UniProtKB/TrEMBL annotation:
Protein known as: Protein SYM1
Family to which this protein belongs: Belongs to the peroxisomal membrane protein PXMP2/4 family.
GO cellular component terms given for this protein: membrane; mitochondrion
Organism: Babjeviella inositovora NRRL Y-12698
Keyword Membrane appears in the UniProt entry: yes
Membrane topology (UniProt): Multi-pass membrane protein
Amino acid sequence: MSKLFSFYKDSLRQRPLVTNIITTGLLSGLGDVIAQKVFPPEDACDFPIPGTLSVSVSPEEERNLSFNYARLGRAMLYGGFVFAPIADKWFRTLNKIQVPASTFRTIGIVPTPKITAVVNTISRVFVDQAIFPTVISVPIYYTALTLLEHKSFEEAKKKLRLNYWPTLTTAWTVWPTIQLFNFGFVKVEYRLFVISTVSLGWNCYLSFMNGKKAPEKHVPVQFP
């Protein structure tokens, strides 16, 4: 394990973008695999098709038959080539946030290194949660995944309207505590890896939400 981590550190130092693309893509894919196993796709065939032979299959076989490999590929593509570069740049930008010492003196607080570090961390978490999920990660996720499914931009907007608020409120209950730890104790170059690792569960949730379908409107048929 120590050799693997040393290899990762060396790779991150020499090829940071490529390393983040590969690791984030793989972890995003793993999250989608878990999502599909726990929450099978809604469009899986759960009824007999007319004109075909009905064959009884075990629950395990049914799960395997309903596995969506294209969806897995889209999750890995999004995680590696869309989310990873954006998030890495975002975390490095957040790290530049420093509360001026004059601000502490204005309110009568001596800016010791410990107090400064705590306030800087809280400030970064606040800015992160106010901006990143609201206008970056959540909108881009649903838009990119829908377009990767070869659907129209109008369909992407519909999916975003359906899932935006539930996803955002869930993010606000999950990520602030994790980001307090991440910004407070983890070096900036490793923060994306921490997020990607914790995101195994989060990616499972996102994949489940993205696989949901909007409720169909049933229009009554009127006969003459």
